[in-house]
Amino acid sequence: MQTEDFSELFPLFNTVNPETLEWLLSVADEHEYPAGRAVLMEDAWGNAVYFVLSGWVKVRRIAGDDRISLAILGQGDFFGEMAILDESPRSTDVIALSSVRLLSVHAQRFIQTLFKDPQLHHRMLQLMVRRLRQMNIRFQLRHQPPAVKLANSLVAMGENYGQVTDLGTEIFNIPFKDLADVADIGVEETTKIMEKLDSKGWIKIDRSRQVIHLINLKQLAQLAGKI
């Protein structure tokens, strides 16, 4: 992948020195996984940083026999950056929701790059603060109605990873169990709300292509904004 294409796909690298980015890509490894495959196991956190070139993954918390989805990530996002700075064991894994292509950069090389390029270091701090703000928004939503929580999750995925089409903003057809986990509501509630949003014409689920069209993103955003 060309450095220009990579920096356009990943906002983290918008201001990075071209030579630094070229070196980083030269030491990166590409991976492909089918849907349902484990991308990163709980004992592998801290080994590398992963960049999502295409497809969708979920980050799950493991607690005994329970598996709870904490986040859904799509094209242009990355994961593993926190673990390379925090050497404590992780009780989470990453699973491919769709077929997915990733680039990985070994932890030591990525840390070297952060120290070499102050712009990348600063940009990384900005994005980590943004993720903390997103977590704070989820905390503020904890007492809100289920429809508000779910709309917030759909809008966030649409804004962060959606592709604009003639039918609206298109995202992957996230399984209702994972949507429910991320929105912190029940699966039954998720099913009812999604059916209602579909009947109102705000979304359309295309199971043949495994996508959800967010047809009326403006109305969804207004619903999500009731916090």
UniProtKB/TrEMBL annotation:
Entry-linked Pfam families: cNMP_binding, HTH_Crp_2
InterPro entries in the cross-refs: cNMP-bd_dom, cNMP-bd_dom_sf, Env_Response_Regulators, HTH_CRP, RmlC-like_jellyroll, WH-like_DNA-bd_sf, WH_DNA-bd_sf
Species of origin: Floridaenema evergladense BLCC-F167
Domain Cyclic nucleotide-binding: 12-131
Entry-linked PROSITE patterns: CNMP_BINDING_3
Keywords, sorted A to Z: DNA-binding, Transcription, Transcription regulation
CDD domains in the cross-refs: CAP_ED
Name the record gives this protein: Crp/Fnr family transcriptional regulator
Lineage: Bacteria, Bacillati, Cyanobacteriota, Cyanophyceae, Oscillatoriophycideae
